[in-house]
Amino acid sequence: MLRFATILAVIAFSDAVHYVIPPNVSPLSQKMIDHINFMNTSWKVRIRTSNAERYSNSALRVQAGNNFDGVSLKYVLRLLGVHKDSHKYRLQEIYHNEIGDIPDSFDSREQWPDCPSIRLIRDQGSCGSCWAFGAVEAMSDRICIASGGKIKVEISAEDLLTCCRGCGYGCNGGFPGAAWEYWVSSGIVTGGLYGSHEGCQPYLIEACEHHTNGTRPPCKEGGGTPKCVHLCEKGYNKSYTADKFYGKNSYAVRSSEKQIQLEIMKNGPVEGAFSVYSDFLNYKSGQYRSIN
């Protein structure tokens, strides 16, 4: 099982020529931004529809800008929460044999309106825990969907992040595949957002402003992974063991647009990861494809 935030209906592709970013260009520099914006003028975009495909030289052109003003590259790299060794923890792959057209649009929120977790946006704070967040968010959604909207829970990112020893390195990156296997073998308790006091183990890392001005404190560099505790928050009405939810099985979906779409339509949101190249750090708008 994987979590994928959106269904991609538009695919960008470049000509056979590949552009190489000069090795002396810093990923967070203005020179990099200018280089990306110049190179993207040669991109083409293919827009898929249900019955035809049409092409444009400028539609959805990618633009770059400064997303990480005043922070170090070391801090940015820590936010890349899927560890480079995650390929060693691949799940068994399934294939959907259903034949039929994919609709032009599909919104899980509208398909399963009785499952509020699908609409929830969680904040991981200053921690490279996206591997855990993507997993527990999709798990929460799928529990609700499988129950016909009767079971509404928020599976705890805190519990998975801190207590799954085989899932990786906590705030320094993890393995999504191992997270799903852990849900099946060991179970995960419930837990809401930071300071929510919802569930057995709410998230303990404070929400922060990710390089924007707002009411929350700014995100900071550093910070360790909280310790694993096999206890629920004081005042919660269940024990840690009694609060656990277990997955029936875990699996991966083939890296095919249609296969991912079919999986979402059949079973709900999925978790996905992709390789991040230096130009992506400056992504601002448009349909992204690395110029490397």
Automatic annotation (TrEMBL):
<dbReference type="InterPro" id="IPR000169">
    <property type="entry name" value="Pept_cys_AS"/>
</dbReference>
<keyword id="KW-0788">Thiol protease</keyword>
<dbReference type="Pfam" id="PF00112">
    <property type="entry name" value="Peptidase_C1"/>
</dbReference>
<dbReference type="InterPro" id="IPR038765">
    <property type="entry name" value="Papain-like_cys_pep_sf"/>
</dbReference>
<feature type="signal peptide">
    <location>
        <begin position="1"/>
        <end position="16"/>
    </location>
</feature>
<feature type="domain" description="Peptidase C1A papain C-terminal">
    <location>
        <begin position="102"/>
        <end position="292"/>
    </location>
</feature>
<protein>
    <submittedName>
        <fullName>Cathepsin B-like protein</fullName>
    </submittedName>
</protein>
<dbReference type="GO" id="GO:0006508">
    <property type="term" value="P:proteolysis"/>
</dbReference>
<keyword id="KW-1015">Disulfide bond</keyword>
<dbReference type="InterPro" id="IPR013128">
    <property type="entry name" value="Peptidase_C1A"/>
</dbReference>
<comment type="similarity">
    <text>Belongs to the peptidase C1 family.</text>
</comment>
<keyword id="KW-0645">Protease</keyword>
<keyword id="KW-0732">Signal</keyword>
<keyword id="KW-0865">Zymogen</keyword>
<keyword id="KW-0378">Hydrolase</keyword>
<dbReference type="GO" id="GO:0008234">
    <property type="term" value="F:cysteine-type peptidase activity"/>
</dbReference>
<dbReference type="InterPro" id="IPR000668">
    <property type="entry name" value="Peptidase_C1A_C"/>
</dbReference>
